[in-house]
Amino acid sequence: MRGTGRLAATLGALVLATTACEAGGASGSDLPGLVEPEVSSGIDYVALGDSFSAGPFIGTMRSDPEGCARSRDNYPAFLADWLDVASYTDVTCSAATTTDLYGTMTMFNGATTGPQLDAVTADTDLVTIGMGGNDFRIYDSLIRCQSGQPCAVDDLTADARKVAGRIEKAVRRITNAAPAASVFVVGYPDILPTQGTCRAVGVRADVLGPVAEVAEVLNASLRRGAEAAGASYVDMESASEGHDVCAKGRAWVNGPQLRPGVAAPFHPKVNGMRAVAVEVFGEFTGEEPEVTEYAEPDPDVIVLNEG
């Protein structure tokens, strides 16, 4: 895994510091009038992505900038919290495509924001990137398919395959900017059932079949692009099995209605974001996190992104 050497060195330094303190016979908590400082992992974390990373309408939205509809409880926020990072820069933005990694993006409110890749520097230790579904308007087209409107599934499948090259290019740009960083490409969860249907979807199972097939091709394309460039792939399609929109109380994704405070239509809810963070945390550290209900990264480590 790219960048694990830096992580090991950082964690090793924390262990040595603790051991030295114990050997000296007194810890900071034994000395009157001193407050034990909060210990971070030393990780500088950057999150890139689209709405499935940003988390539109989950709880409270961040205002840096408002047009990205970026939640304070998206999976990057959970990761930053659980990893006790030294710095946390989240530039995920709803509706982003891979082209928005390199150029100015016009957001929902008409304002613009800069290239997401500008957030990645030589000091970056960890990068997550979750995007590709907005490229070629793939997800927009899938929504039309799902509603029963005519759609060219073969064209959508071909477009989904093209995403691999775009993700490979993005990962190579990331690793050029941050050679020691661990890079994780995050796949999309199951939104719709792979078999059958339900009232929450509102269309027949035979209509959903082609939609699910295109989504599967897209995730395979993300994996192929990630691995071609040496990044790790986080398989949320497998992890989310049984948690699609038809799973009722076990669903990680919202249904077709906009629910402010819960999620955008057919987007992850807070439990879905938490689930992604669990998977990435495990891939990065080889351990299980101490899972929290909401994300609470240290405010002092959050890098604000104004424009």
Automatic annotation (TrEMBL):
<feature type="domain" description="SGNH hydrolase-type esterase">
    <location>
        <begin position="47"/>
        <end position="275"/>
    </location>
</feature>
<dbReference type="Pfam" id="PF13472">
    <property type="entry name" value="Lipase_GDSL_2"/>
</dbReference>
<protein>
    <submittedName>
        <fullName>SGNH/GDSL hydrolase family protein</fullName>
    </submittedName>
</protein>
<feature type="signal peptide">
    <location>
        <begin position="1"/>
        <end position="22"/>
    </location>
</feature>
<dbReference type="InterPro" id="IPR036514">
    <property type="entry name" value="SGNH_hydro_sf"/>
</dbReference>
<dbReference type="InterPro" id="IPR037460">
    <property type="entry name" value="SEST-like"/>
</dbReference>
<keyword id="KW-0378">Hydrolase</keyword>
<dbReference type="GO" id="GO:0016787">
    <property type="term" value="F:hydrolase activity"/>
</dbReference>
<keyword id="KW-0732">Signal</keyword>
<dbReference type="InterPro" id="IPR013830">
    <property type="entry name" value="SGNH_hydro"/>
</dbReference>
